[in-house]
Amino acid sequence: MPDSAVAETFKDEAGAIEVRNDLTYLTTGIVNVAFIGFPKNDWVLVDAGLSTYAGTIIEAADQRFGSLATPRCIILTHGHFDHIGSLEALLERWDVPVYAHPAEFPYLDGSQSYPPPDPSAGGGAMTLLSPLFPRGPIDISRWLRELPGDGTVPGLEGWRWLHTPGHTQGHISLWREADRTLVAGDAFITTRQESAYHALAQTPELHGPPRYFTPDWNAAEASVRKLADLEPELVVTGHGKAMAGPELQAGLHRLADNFGSIAVPHSRTRP
């Protein structure tokens, strides 16, 4: 059943959608990047989208923050190919620190590839195509930094990072308590990412993390429960449209309460 509370203030000429005065997101193909910061001010980029989208991301940043705008840093929710595809090209332009959870470092410092996807997870063409998706690693050691252990987010006063593993070991989400705003990455998403049609159409529905690239369903369930308990008022996820309000909260609790039947593929069993 679709959840209809889509959060959208306006879309600018570059295609970025504002959902807070200091939060916009841009869809690069089938995955979102987020810009946190007030227009014409300091800002932070969250994730780096698909490859070939560096120019689009730079254009959106220039339009919102000013010509030749440079972020304070880049925060990665995790290192899957669709979240870091344009990262190296962006770093050639901006040369700024990149912060991630230390458990993601092997996939970002050239030492280890992600585990193979699960093409038996079911759900549609994206799942069937998943063995063709890049698994890394990339090597951005020169720019890579560990997120502060106290939960603060570099360059973002009032925000905290939360460890939300399951989709990857070092997956994180960003949370601002003051207005209950959540940037969830792929801890949960708001479209049925396994289906190519839904991935492109982005029908607003609460779903667990993309099935084909999620190895630890027990941790994923715990992460969804943690985020549901925050009662977020607005969320920007890695895939799908931003959502807000009671429909978001009800849908997120429904996902947490029925995680096994909604999110976990039938091909997978959990202890």
Automatic annotation (TrEMBL):
State whether keyword Hydrolase applies. Answer: yes
The record's listing under Gene3D superfamilies reads:
Ribonuclease Z/Hydroxyacylglutathione hydrolase-like (3.60.15.10)
* Keyword terms: Hydrolase
Q: Which GO terms describe its molecular function?
A: hydrolase activity
- Metallo-beta-lactamase domain residues: 30-239
Asked whether the keyword Phosphoprotein is assigned, the reply is no
Question: Which Pfam families is this protein grouped with?
Answer: Lactamase_B
- PANTHER family, per database record: METALLO-BETA-LACTAMASE DOMAIN-CONTAINING (PTHR42951), METALLO-BETA-LACTAMASE DOMAIN-CONTAINING PROTEIN (PTHR42951:SF17)
Full protein name: MBL fold metallo-hydrolase
Instruction: Kindly list the organism's lineage.
Output: Bacteria, Pseudomonadati, Pseudomonadota, Alphaproteobacteria, Hyphomicrobiales
